[in-house]
Design a protein that fits this description.
mainly alpha; 5 helices; transmembrane helix; membrane; transmembrane; DUF3784 domain-containing protein; UCP037672
Length: 124
Amino acid sequence: MQRRRNMERVIVISVFLCMMMAALHVAHAVVFTILGEKCVWLIKSYRELPKEKRKCYDAALVVTGARNQLFLWALWFVAGAIVCFFVTPFLVIVFLGVWLAVFFSRRKFSEIRYEKYKKNNFSA
């Protein structure tokens, strides 16, 4: 009986953790949606670019890309909550671990990743 209660607590904690991460990502994405181009300074890799390189990229597209990524991470954590509830609560470690690995790998500026945000300098 005690073991079952402990397992129920672990399930509640893991689902709560995933749902809180999803809520934080959605809240951040909503801020990006409402403020639009003004919140480009929240993106660390863009903020650390030299000013002459920043001019090559469309800030609105950068914000849209970051917002979409935040919504995808929110879906990732909602899926994590569902899996933790129905399969095993210990998979929360996997969901958080993957998120942390990708989060820290994307903190630096990558020319390839930002290629899709370049401004079109073609005159027609």
